[in-house]
């Protein structure tokens, strides 16, 4: 049994940081540009700011906050689709809490709820199914959101609904997949990432093997990391050791949670219920091939996209929102003109300010930003 204090030990953190500083000097004594390390997962972004890790790192390492917060990459058009479903008669629209406040082009789900739509916050898709059992005269829609981490529970809920013959339960699938997204980042001409902190929770489901292409085709290292401060520091150290040695391997720092082969039961449930879409639209990153999933034909009676009229429009973010540039690491959150002024956690203009895993929200809450630095 490991206790959380072991992963927050300041003395151990100091020792790892000394090695990180030394290695960063050795790797890039003459390098003008800092090493770009992307933490793919929003949970890592949150931990990095919560524990002030970025400030402890050498200037030669720059952390790029990646697209692994599902709420943050949800495009406005999809929020509009949610609202359009919620506004239809006899619908109870259910969603995780952090999706309630994501702005659509006209309103958020929270605003729709204030205008008499029946929008309910749930903690799991099974909660939504229970609402469907108790409200047989209503159509209960669950807003399926998230990467491979949350996909299995949604898939199992659809299978349960099928088993029980529940006819008033629907899924609006906005589930997304991590591997095509990392590939899109690696192919992007705007970005050069030297190495990745791999997502811990997603990897618990998919395992280690799907990342191998990053090493074999793109020659970059990736270390699957846990979320405690020492996990993240140790993972950074492992990345630097590889970079110093000129290696590009996939390593697993989070072995206490992530099995090498992933979770077969979870993967089976996902592949039973879902299939890849040809493409999916991401906020800030545009359309990425095979990066989202929809419900398979066998379960199509649960598919909200077939059961409800939805606008399905591509809506551009307001010009002043710079979420896309933040997501690509082109600017830091506080360099967005709206940061801390029109856009703050109370009144978010962009999705990165909504979720606690969003880079802008994390910077705002923990970033020790001096007001004079806000653009
Ligand atoms: S401050 Fe707001 S609008 Fe600007 S990038 Fe962050 S979330 Fe988007």
Automatic annotation (TrEMBL):
Transmembrane segments: none annotated. Gene3D superfamilies: 6.10.20.100, HypD, alpha/beta domain 1. InterPro entries: Hyd_form_HypD, HypD_1, HypD_2_sf. It holds the Pfam family HypD. It comes from the Bacteria. Keywords: Iron, Metal-binding. Belongs to the HypD family. NCBIfam families: hypD. This is Hydrogenase maturation factor. The gene is hypD.
């Amino acid at each position: 049994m490991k206790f959380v204090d072991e992963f927050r030990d300041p003395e151990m953190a100091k020792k790892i940081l000394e090695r990180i500083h030394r290695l960063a000097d050795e790797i890039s004594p003459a390098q003008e540009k800092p090493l770009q390390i992307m933490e793919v997962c929003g949970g890592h972004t949150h931990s990095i700011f919560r524990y002030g890790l970025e400030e402890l790192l050498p200037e030669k390492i720059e952390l790029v906050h990646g697209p692994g917060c599902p709420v943050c990459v949800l495009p406005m058009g999809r929020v509009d689709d949610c609202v359009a479903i919620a506004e239809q008669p006899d619908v109870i629209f259910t969603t995780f809490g952090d999706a309630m406040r994501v702005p659509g082009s006209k309103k958020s789900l929270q605003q729709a709820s204030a205008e008499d739509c029946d929008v309910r916050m749930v903690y799991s898709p099974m909660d939504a199914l229970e609402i469907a059992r108790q409200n047989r005269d209503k159509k209960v829609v669950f807003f399926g959101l998230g990467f491979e981490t949350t996909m299995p529970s949604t898939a199992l809920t659809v299978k349960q609904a099928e088993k029980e013959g529940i006819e008033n339960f629907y899924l609006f699938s906005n589930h997304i997949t991590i591997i095509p997204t990392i590939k899109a980042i690696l192919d992007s001409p705007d970005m050069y990432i030297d190495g990745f902190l791999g997502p811990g929770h997603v990897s618990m489901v998919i395992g280690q093997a799907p990342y191998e292409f990053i090493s074999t085709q793109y020659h970059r290292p990736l270390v699957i990391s846990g979320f405690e401060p020492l996990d993240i520091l140790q993972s950074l150290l492992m990345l630097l050791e590889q970079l110093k040695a000129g290696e590009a391997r996939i390593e697993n720092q989070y072995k206490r949670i992530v099995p090498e082969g992933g979770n077969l039961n979870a993967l089976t449930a996902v592949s039973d219920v879902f299939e890849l879409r040809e493409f999916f639209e991401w906020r800030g990153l545009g359309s990425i091939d095979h990066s989202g999933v929809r419900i398979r034909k066998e379960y199509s009676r649960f598919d909200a996209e077939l059961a409800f009229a939805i606008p399905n429009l591509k809506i551009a973010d307001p010009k002043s929102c710079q979420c896309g540039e933040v997501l690509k690491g082109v600017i830091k959150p506080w360099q967005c003109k709206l940061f801390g002024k029109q856009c703050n956690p109370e009144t978010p203009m962009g999705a990165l300010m909504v979720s606690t895993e969003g880079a802008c929200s994390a910077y705002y809450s923990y970033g020790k930003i001096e007001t004079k630095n806000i653009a």
